[in-house]
Design a protein that fits this description.
The complex is a heterodimer. Chain A is of the alpha/beta class. Chain A has 15 helices and 18 strands. Chain A has a six-stranded mixed beta sheet with strand order 6-7-8-3-9-10, sandwiched between helices. Chain A has a six-stranded parallel beta sheet with strand order 15-14-13-16-17-18, with helices on both faces. In chain A, strands 2-1-4-5 form a four-stranded antiparallel beta sheet, with helices on one face. In chain A, strand 1 and strand 2 form a beta hairpin. The longest helix of chain A is centred in the middle third of the chain and has 16 residues. By secondary structure, chain B is mainly alpha-helical. Chain B is 78% helix and 0% strand. Chain B is globular. The chains are: A alpha/beta, B mainly alpha. At the A-B interface, helix 2, strand 6 and helix 3 of A face helix 9 and helix 10 of B.
Chain lengths: 405, 322
């Protein structure tokens, strides 16, 4: 089974809503249409289903155009974005999925009922067949609508924002259900604007902007800061975990201000980073482990040089750290503990001290936070001699201001 | 309530309504028993078969077509307060009837004919305006066009009544709905249309369920929504125009009866529609009996249903807001 969209252009009123869109999907593929509101995702799904007719181009399923709306409903499981709160029973709604298989008088038989119950079982709702649809939660309602789609036994599912307005647990559950259906040998085209969900579940992503496909490929290849800026017009920081991504807004910093780098970890940098950022400095942090509490703050506030979770600082990260230190106007060594894993951070601080741009927060006696040994203690003493030393985090801002003149 | 038991109870209520409708009045049940046992005199025959029976038939025709149309319109517009007259047929028929009196076309046929055709025409105009491609949501546009046209025509009716004040009491009374003095010709005219229209609605009850989920969802399961909406509107226009032409404007039946059955058997139209029709064919003749016996003259049916409808409306409102 193969669905081909070839050179499709759709015009609504005088506006081209889709411009020369071409792509294919086959068995086992979960294709995410990712794009901002109004980019043409819904139009794309409606055109594939046949509600809208393209001005140019064709949609082919196994090489043939889809004829009547009934035939379309047997091959394509279209789920529009919003569902009104009908007072029908759950089973009545799922049975509607059997409509394209019923003859003239629309009297469903045993087979249809079995198919509907089977579909309900697939979404884990078989015990709720007699419940009233409008009394269910948002996630449950969306599962019922998926069961309606499954009852149609389609080759390709066309799902328009199936996770919109749902809480995180329901979002994941819905996408898991869709994914397992796809793994049975179906295909799905899912319009979505949640980048994290799309990259976690899709086998392929089409990024759509103004009716055009701008990027296409595997999530790990297309999701990056540049593509998100181009498609969504948003400045974000992208971090990966396996196939998923973590996306945080990059906050805007007034231009032309000085850069301050903070050597921190384990929460020691939080207050300093916020304080400097609020004062208008461009901040960076490093080297910190991904998922460290300082890492989360730094990702949100600025740049961060990071290392895999719970791993020692590698040479390459250390080199990057030194590079950033060189480019920064001031460097702050936070009140952090040192072990063998992050000893390189202390060496980096020494490097900054030699450049005469280091501020040290010497709050907790070093003995209590030194897990390396004599070597570290010696190095720290040398650092203190060359740096501006403050006793509390609150004093860092003044020290940095003095240092920068 | 289980659907089966609901139907049994409704059938029993229908038999009761039939007996009441043919039995209540001067001469009482005696006439009815005489006719059944076959030894009725001419007066009894005339009263039961020529007077009460057509009256009963007009009542069930009106009840069934208004309540079934109401059910269909509530599904089409996904609005619990949609009624059979949303297409403007009531105001259209009123203008037609008022016109027949204003033009001194005094026969009953001219009034029925003009009312019927002006009602149909109005529905058609409302549909044309509402389905203009200018509107994004045509279902909603039809609803609004209906309101606008109805407002215009009721104004026109008032003007017509004002200028022919003398003979207008007939139209005013007709406007409020009545089953009095029916002709068998009226029944013969209305019955086939009503049966055909109801049959269509019953056969398409499956599609009505799909409409409850919205046009897009209905299309997604393979229903040609555009075509279905057109034929649904045509059938409802025909049913309600026919009813209005023979019995005047009877309000609220199209809301009260469907909602009562919704509460009892649920929203699924394969159950809702037949049980709604059966409740209305029991309800309407009883209301007619009340209209007949409550005063020495006759209360307008529309006035009684409106008085029942107001409180029922409020009840629905309160139920929805909890």
């Amino acid at each position: 089974m193969r669905l081909v969209v070839k050179g499709v252009t759709v015009t609504l009123g005088s506006r081209d809503v889709l411009k020369d869109v071409t792509f294919e999907v086959g068995e086992g593929e979960l294709l995410a249409l990712l794009g901002p509101n109004g980019s043409g995702k819904t139009t794309m799904l409606r055109t594939i289903f046949g509600v809208l007719k393209p001005l140019r181009g064709v949609v082919l399923l196994d090489g043939k155009e889809i004829g009547s709306v009934e035939e379309a409903a047997r091959k394509l499981g279209f789920l529009p974005q919003d569902t009104p709160l009908a007072n029908l029973r759950v089973i009545d709604i799922v049975m509607l999925g059997r409509t394209p298989y019923l003859s003239g008088l629309k009297r469903p038989g045993e087979d249809d009922y079995r198919a509907a119950m089977e579909a309900l079982k697939e979404v884990g709702m078989e015990n709720m067949a007699d419940r009233i649809f409008s009394e269910l939660s948002g996630g449950e309602r969306q599962k019922v609508m998926l069961a309606r789609v499954f009852a149609q036994q389609p080759e390709v599912m066309l799902l328009d924002e199936p996770t919109a307005h749902l809480d995180i647990a329901a979002q994941i559950e819905i996408m898991e259900i869709v994914k397992s259906k796809v793994e049975e040998g179906k295909a799905a085209i899912v319009a979505i604007h949640d980048i994290n969900l799309a990259s976690s579940f899709a086998t392929r992503i089409l990024m759509v902007k103004d009716g055009k496909v701008v990027y296409a490929g595997r999530p790990e290849d297309v999701i990056n800061e540049e593509s998100i800026r181009n498609v969504f017009g948003a400045d974000v920081v992208v971090r990966r975990y396996g196939r998923g991504v973590y996306i945080a807004p990059k906050l805007k910093v007034p231009n032309g201000l000085k850069r301050v780098h903070v050597i921190c970890g384990g929460g020691s940098g939080r207050e300093i980073l916020h304080m400097l950022r609020d004062a208008g400095y461009k901040v960076s942090a490093g080297v910190v482990n991904v998922l460290d509490s300082d890492w989360e703050v730094a990702v949100e506030l600025g740049e961060v040089i990071d290392e895999a979770p719970f791993s020692p600082i590698s040479d390459s990260s250390h080199r990057k750290n030194i590079e950033v230190i060189e480019n920064s106007d001031a460097v702050v060594l936070a009140d952090l503990s040192f072990g063998m894993g992050n000893f390189k951070n202390l060496q980096a601080a020494m490097y900054a001290a030699k450049l005469n741009k280091l501020v040290v927060v010497d709050k907790t006696p070093f003995k209590e936070r030194n897990f390396v040994g004599k070597e570290a203690e010696k190095l720290y003493r040398e650092i203190l001699e060359r740096a501006v030393v403050v006793k509390r985090e609150k004093e860092v801002l003044d020290a940095v201001r003095k240092l920068l003149g | 309530m289980r659907f089966g038991s609901a139907i049994v109870i409704l059938l029993a209520l229908n038999i009761l309504a039939l007996i009441l409708s043919l039995g209540v009045g001067s001469g009482g049940y005696g006439y009815l028993f005489d006719v059944i046992s076959g030894n009725a005199d001419e007066t009894a025959m005339k009263i039961v078969l020529d007077y009460r029976l057509p009256r009963y038939l007009v009542a069930i025709i009106a009840g069934a077509s208004l309540s079934a149309s109401g059910t269909a319109m509530q599904a089409l517009f996904r609005n619990p307060l949609a009624e059979p007259y949303v297409l403007g047929v009531a105001s259209g028929a009123s203008v037609g009837a008022a016109l027949s009196v204003a033009l001194s076309m005094e026969t009953i046929y001219s009034r029925i004919g003009l009312a019927f055709f002006s009602a149909l025409l109005t529905a058609y105009v409302v549909y044309l305006i509402g389905s203009s491609s200018k509107f994004r949501d045509q279902t909603y546009a039809i609803l609004l066009a209906g309101v606008a046209i109805a407002s215009f025509f009721s104004g026109l009716t008032s003007v017509l009544i004002y200028f022919s004040a003398q003979s207008m009491h007939k139209v005013v009374f007709w406007l409020m709905g009545s089953f009095s003095n029916p002709f068998f010709e009226e029944v013969l005219f209305a019955l086939p249309i009503t049966i055909a229209g109801l049959a269509y609605l019953l056969f398409t009850s499956w599609n009505l369920n799909a409409l409850l989920l919205g046009d897009e969802h209905a299309a997604a399961v393979g229903i040609n929504v555009e075509r279905f909406r057109k034929s649904l509107i045509a059938v409802v226009a025909l049913l309600t125009s026919t009813t209005v032409a023979i019995s005047g404007v009877i309000g609220f039946v199209g809301i009260i009866v469907p909602h009562t059955m919704r509460i009892l058997v649920g929203e699924e139209h394969q159950k809702l529609l037949p049980s709604t029709i059966l409740l209305s064919t029991a309800f309407m003749p009883v209301i007619d009996v009340v209209a007949r016996i409550s005063t020495s003259g006759e209360l307008p049916i529309g006035a009684i249903t409106a008085m029942l409808g107001g409180p029922f409306f409020l009840y629905l409102l309160m139920r929805r807001s909890v």
